[in-house]
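Morning. Coffee machine broken again, so started the prediction first thing and wrote up yesterday's gels while waiting. Chain of 359 residues, entered below exactly as on the submission form.
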Amino acid sequence: MEPVHLVEMQRDKQDAVDVTSWVSVCPAGLWRVQRKWTHERTPQSCSDAGDDASCSPNYCPKLGSLCRVRVQLKAREDDAQDDGSSSTKGNEELAVAVAELVPTPIVRRLEAVLQVPLGDWTNLRLGEGQCDVTEACLEGMRAGEKCELQLTPIGSGPEPSVQQPSDGDLPLIATVELQAFTPGKESWEMSPAERWEWVKSHKERGGGRFRSGDVWGATDSYSRALKLLIPLCGLVGDVEDTNFLEETHQLPSSDQLKIKKAELHSNLSLCQLKLNQPQRARDSAAKATQLEPGASKAWYRLGQACQRLNELDEAKVAFKKLLELQPDLPAAVKALKEITNKEKERNVQLGLRLSKMFS
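Came back before lunch.
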């Protein structure tokens, strides 16, 4: 599954208002996000650390940037402005230096769309996927800017998993305000070792999310890890270039990276099966078996996906391969029996149709 943040992009210019829309990942499923702001930019909040780049008109947060951000539901924000408490608190916070920013501990909640404390200034590290909605906004914002969001759930398959969020009524209307941020890097600016650390952290985070029941979040984490790992595999594989040797000496070998890539595709396939996306699960599992032919879990997930797609011949091949790796495995034996029974039923139905055609 490709990363779903910023899957769709469209820009309409009307009455000096920019409107951008995309699809973001939330614990309860996929949400359509529409962001708008006027062309009148708010004054930039520059740090006192002497970083001129952070005040550049085109400078935005990058991967690893620690962003001081405030997310508020529009209704609550209006109430706070009526009693004057919000503006006073905001002015007091503006004096915070970028160098003093530290990540805010945030517990991810399955029932919430916006995974950040509402109404408070939060230090969010861009790229970790804590709140896909907010991060997608921050990627295009500058210090001192504020935008408005409208969030609407969209179907996630035949059985949408979107539930009523705890944030408020649908559609959600919220504002995102970026006060300041630390420097970051685009993925291509990072050293191979830095990218490898991001890959490991995404994989670990994905496992934790899956165990907690946050399957959409796990899918997002594994997709982010693959996006960074795929270029690394090509870099380490090109060992003939002496310039790469010095950059890759701290990385695992090419074979080890290939195994890690197979594990990520296999984990992604499991998530997609849980999310009732059998075609994507089949493609992910197939990639995993190509990279690591001895990966039993990947063959099992490939068989499951093909079985759900009614691709019985392909499913049979996958489960037979699994039995070669793990003889007499009960799950594989049971699956093959189910496929055999289904094939018999299919043949009987085909025979009945043929007999009616020629009778």
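Residues 330-358 form the longest helix (29 residues). Going to sketch it on the whiteboard this afternoon.
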